[in-house]
Amino acid sequence: MTPDLFPEVYEGLTRLPGFAAGSAPDLFAAVQSIAATAPFRQMVTPWGKPMSVGMSNCGAAGWVTDRTGYRYTPTDPQTGHPWPPMPEIFRLLAQEAAAQGGFPDFTPDACLINRYAPGARMTLHQDRNEQDFTAPIVSVSLGLPAVFLWGGPARTDKPSRILLESGDVLVWGGTARLYFHGILPLTEGEHPLAGRARINLTFRKAL
To answer: What's the chain's average pLDDT?
Structure first.
């Protein structure tokens, strides 16, 4: 899992172009296995609005949202069973990418899996439901390309737009750990592995 281009560094953020491209088929297979146990679903925000992305999780804890709020849970609320264990290929990829981004001691315990269909988006937000903000975030893009929004510490900060291709990996942390970020609405397209979809793997140290 070696980047095929030099890393690109933004303020507090490292983009590793093509870092996961070589392992994409195995990553997709792992996602399909996880989804067979913990199916993708459109969760509801605390304000009662369904999210446009389909979500699943693996690892010791999974991120969920409903009318009671945002949180991590050890079990899937839909099935009542523990979330599927994190595949070794996921953990190794996250650790290697984090080391490339300057965080050599990262050990993720949670992976949120988002499935974007054309038109789905993620508004600017912070990842702030974790217990320890010293650990970085590792985000892996698979499938259709997407435009990532990289903001700043305030929601009103004007975000940079970064094109993400399948296999690209983002790493951020440190003083930028709580920077706002998001995804513009996904453009229609067809990917040989993902079809009309984008899969995003977000690795965190949640517990």
So the answer is: 95
